Amino acid sequence: MTDQTLAPQPTPPRKPRPRWATLATSISILVLISLIASALLPLGLTQSAEPQRTAEEWLEVGDAAIANGDFTAARDAYSNAARREPDLAGAYLGRGYAYAELGLTGVALSDLSRALELDPDLAEAHYRRGQVFLELQDGVRASADLNLAIRLGWDTSEANLLLGTLYYSAGQLANALATLDRAVDLDPTNADAFFVRGLTQQDLGNLPAAISNFSSAHTLNPQRLEIVFQRALAYYVQQDFRRALADWNTLLAAQPDNLDALKNRAITHQQLEQFEPAARDFSRLISLDRSNAEHYRNRGLAFAGMGAFSAAIADLEHSVLLAPDSAIGHFTLGNLYNAVERAEDALAAYRRAVLVDPTFIPALLNLGSGYAEAGDLSNAIESYTRALRLEPLNNIALLNRGAAYLTNNQPEAALADLDLLLSVEPGNALGYLRRGQARQTLEQIQGALNDFNRAILLNPQEAEAYNRRAILQYGLNNLPAALADWQVVTQLAPNFPDAHYNLAVVHFIQGDLDLALESLGRSLALRPEYPDALLLRGSVYSVQEEYELALADYTHVIQLVPEFARTYYNRGVVYFYLSRSDDAIADFRKVLELTTDPALRSQANNALVAMGAQQPPPPLESDIPDVSIVVEVEE
Predict the structure, then answer these.
(1) Whole-angstrom Cα distance, residue 515 to residue 522?
(2) Which among 110, 97, 92 has a CA at the least distance from the CA of 55?
(3) Which residue has the higher pLDDT, 349 or 3?
């Protein structure tokens, strides 16, 4: 049973996390437009023809200019108001707002701060200054001003949106969520609030809520493709790949040159095992950037999914030429070499991956597995040990090193690894199977039985566990239990000839000769030159007095294993009953040539004496065949 090679995963889709300044800036524009339309209603005044106006009249002129989008005229009007009344907070508020809209953030900040010196409870001034601080990327002071604005009565959807965005950007997700909830409650048509709340829910791991918010934002603002992008990411993470694909398609229909969306669509195609469209998308990416090793690597994986391994390997080989320091590139290439049974090339690729990144645990594990498959147990154990130095409780490394220790006849070391494995992963069926194997080798029979029982309980489809347990039960002379287990093995692994042979052994011992022959027939159909099965079938035929058939089987065994003395003895007995005395004597003498076993030599001498007296030679004492202890079950 070979170690499972770790397959590389495609690079996950990119998830651009907006910087607070960028996102807040785009949102603030929408906020200001909405605020101008809904909060700062023009007073409907026309410019007076009188050369002298009061400060309040100039404020009204400035407000009217703001409403018309004429921020230069607004600035001048508010300046006139400040000259008329230097302590008029509203004049500095209005002029600061106008300066901010004109892009003069420095003077805007100065005017808004002056307004707050004159009136610290002026909510709108805190709000406007908070926006300016956002422009200046000063999130701390922006957050303080926005909080004050809301507490002082500027409790608008837009203000809560900006503050919630700041909380989100600072990683204060609980505060962000509460504030964005308020923004949505105040204005259920605020698409930006739904969008940022979706980002917050996504980071909190609540993907259904995130998708719901993105969908609401998309309904309110179907032209904003960033919403579609983020919803596609959420669908992908939720493993709803079909809906993710639909969103990538929507986005690419509007923005065919969006490379992030193109790459993410290709990866989503791979997850859906739609390898041909994935390869097409990666091919387009390669045509746009032929120096990108990652695109070649991903297209190679798509080709591999299509079964086009030559093209896949060519892409991976090109990717490591472009990026020789990419451990994942060498690792993936090694996996492809393994897939086409180029074991030496795979080992070399894993060695390069580890050379590039000595901490790359998957490469160390696959390197160990490659060494184990090649029979280089010393290097296999060393590779697993290096992985365990990096991650002492790595389950795969513990299991595989334990298995390598077993193969290397180090059952005590194997037992230590497997004990540790099962202490941290008590549900690991293969761990119990291997620990049972170690205990079986150490002749801890009851412990081994317990482990095999546990392995079968956790994985009733594990044929090797039944086979090993049957061998133990046979050794304990519990033939019914052994028979039942081997029957299960033949059902789970019908192409495993040893299980059919072992069934035949139990049937033979129990005297069920027809059933023995039936099982032997299945075994020999799978492995025609199986000496043990041929020998046992010869014995069955001999008991049934089918001497010609027995002779053919014994002769076949002698051709396969000419040094096996017991076969000559059995054939000598058959020759006697076929009245071929000279051949029988020759076979009994051959036994004496081949064996030093006192019991078998004694029987051969007795047979020769019997032949001289023209008496039938005695049958072999304890002519019970051995069961096969082969445990590498052929599934």
Answers:
(1) 11
(2) 92
(3) 349
